[in-house]
Design a protein that fits this description.
The protein is of the alpha/beta class. 35% of the residues lie in helices and 17% in strands. The mean pLDDT is 94. Bound molecules: phosphoenolpyruvate and manganese (II) ion. The site of manganese (II) ion has 5 residues, from loops.
Length: 354
């Protein structure tokens, strides 16, 4: 719940409410966003986290210094748009590259493009191509979650090292998937910029807790068999670790008869942009699984309000170790695509060009 106090309520009165909340085992956080940016700037506001019952709400509402109690329904409070009243951004610091990248409300579309799986021969050229075409981040998997144990599993630590060596040359921050709690320290050793959690780990709560604890930006991918509510609750495990740097990624779901690799879920961009304050990314490659669909689906995602688009690219798709069939390889086409997506975002959401 959110508590709005009366204008002029004293610190002592507010502290008395907070003490009561803590006695109930609830966590209280002053809401800086509301004080700094809402038109009702003088109203003190607290976010209250934990298991809030009707009895709690009634008791708080009856206290003298309390103006309103707002229950939060559906969306976990950490992600809720109601919490701060406006949509937020996440900044990726990029200490190894050419300046930070900010994704989210009021910012130009952020493009995350790179190889599906890091390889020795083509990752550098692919990531350089993505940068020339206008990408802001490079994506690339060193650990690959594969349906069959006989499929290529990723170069693992060698892949992480390679990805970071390439980063040193290209200058863009990197997004890469962490599959296992046992690897989190290694991701920190290489100072990965954004930790991705994949669709198959969408409810691996222990992993979500551990990546959350790093404090690094986390790209959380919706589970392909999870409802939106389930995915929001799972993503909240990351934020409950005190990590505000969550980016929510849609990537399609298992559907009932559709033309693509997955059933597109881009309508959720529109819904979520009214419900969560976190940046929303759409993965146009893993949702569609088709190279020829990437441009059009990206157009829809950008126009619909996605803050970022993620896609696979590869300079030599026939040599890609994973997912070459869906990778964009033509630099001119990629450049046009990214420019069009940015223009569509600008037209529909504002935010300007990068
Ligand atoms: C990926 O981004 O490489 C990936 C495996 O994605 P997902 O978890 O969405 O399938
Ligand atoms: Mn892939």
């Amino acid at each position: 719940m959110i508590i709005q106090y009366n204008i002029g309520a004293s610190e002592a009165e507010i502290e008395a409410v907070r003490t009561r909340l803590r006695e109930w085992g609830l966590r209280v956080q002053f809401n800086p966003g509301t004080r700094a940016e809402s038109p009702e700037a003088q109203i003190p506001v607290d976010n209250v986290f934990g298991v809030v019952t009707d009895a709690h709400r009634h008791e708080v509402a009856a206290m003298d210094c309390v103006r309103t109690v707002i229950p939060i329904e559906g969306v976990p409070q950490n992600l809720s748009l109601v919490r701060r009243g406006h949509r937020h951004t996440v900044t990726i610091p990029n200490p190894h590259g050419s300046g930070p990248v900010t994704i989210g409300a009021g910012r130009p579309l952020a493009v995350m493009a790179g190889v599906c799986a890091v390889d020795r021969e083509y990752t550098l050229a692919s990531h350089q191509m993505a940068k020339r075409a206008g990408a802001d981040l490079n994506r690339g998997g060193a650990y690959k979650p594969r349906t069959s144990p006989y499929d290529f599993q990723g170069l693992k630590e060698d892949g992480l090292k390679l990805l970071c060596d390439v980063r040193a040359e290209v200058g863009l921050p990197v997004v890469t998937e962490c599959l296992d709690v046992r690897d989190v320290d290694l991701f920190m050793k290489y100072d990965v910029d954004v930790l991705q959690t994949g669709t198959r780990n969408a409810q691996n709560f222990e992993l979500l807790i551990e990546v959350g604890r790093t404090g690094k930006p986390v790209l959380y991918k919706r589970g392909f068999s999870n409802s939106i509510e389930e995915s929001l609750k799972a993503a909240n495990y990351v934020m409950e670790q005190g990590n505000d740097n969550l980016i929510f990624c849609l990537r399609g779901v298992k559907g009932i008869g559709h033309s693509f690799r997955n059933q597109g879920d881009m309508d959720e961009i529109v819904s979520l942009s009214h419900r969560i304050d976190r940046p929303i990314v759409y993965d146009v490659s893993h949702s569609s699984g088709r190279k020829s669909a990437v441009a059009g689906i990206g157009n829809m995602a950008a126009a619909g309000g996605a803050d970022g688009i993620l896609l696979d690219v590869h300079v030599s798709p026939e040599h890609a170790l994973v997912d070459g069939f869906q990778a964009i390889d033509d630099e001119a086409e990629l450049t046009r695509m990214i420019a069009t997506w940015r223009k569509l975002r600008e037209l529909t959401q504002g935010g300007g060009a990068r």
